[in-house]
Amino acid sequence: MEKKVIGKQGLQGKALWVIKALLCAYIVTGILLLVLTLLLYKMDLSEENVNAGIILIYVISTFSGGFVIGKLAGSKKFLWGLAAGVLYFVLLILISMGIYHSLDSELAALATTFLLCAGGGMLGGMVA
Predict the structure, then answer these.
(1) Residues of 37-52 as b/e, b for ≥16 C-beta within 10 angstroms?
(2) Cα separation of 120 and 83, whole Å?
(3) Cα dihedral sign for 76, 18, 50, 127?
């Protein structure tokens, strides 16, 4: 019996794609949150503007993660982008649960955030 060699397309390679995409998405998130914080400090933004900024950050971040994984995957890009967006949302929820020990959001708000993250990732994968 011969051993199968796991190459770049193997499970380890695909896991590395996901890690790179999520790392990119969270780096973009961090940078954009810093910019939003600066805008909040300098321009005294309203709560509605801050909420809109956070939604925009979700979409831009997952778009960038989906774009990265789409470039790495080469085929079925929209599915890989969707996976990156869903995993971004799952990590977002896990981090929130770790910090606050509960989910204070309503189910409708969580569903909307999920759809924004999944859609942003899928769009990024399709554009790649």
Answers:
(1) eeeeeeeeeeeeeeee
(2) 11
(3) negative
| C-beta atoms surrounding 32 within 10 Å | 18
pLDDT digits (tens, 9 = 90+) for 93-123: 999 888 888 877 888 989 999 999 999 999 9
Taking alpha carbons only, the member of 70, 33, 67 closest to residue 53 is 33
Kindly state the average pLDDT of the residues 16-30. 95
Reported as a pLDDT band with limits 50, 70 and 90, residue 9 is low
CA angle 30, 122, 104 (to 5 degrees): 55
Write down how long the chain is. 128
Rounded-to-integer distance, Cα 53 and Cα 59, Å: 10
d(CA 31, CA 100) in angstroms, rounded, equals 22
Q: What is the pTM assigned to this prediction?
A: 0.86
HSE-CB at 46 with a 13 A cutoff on CA atoms is: 3
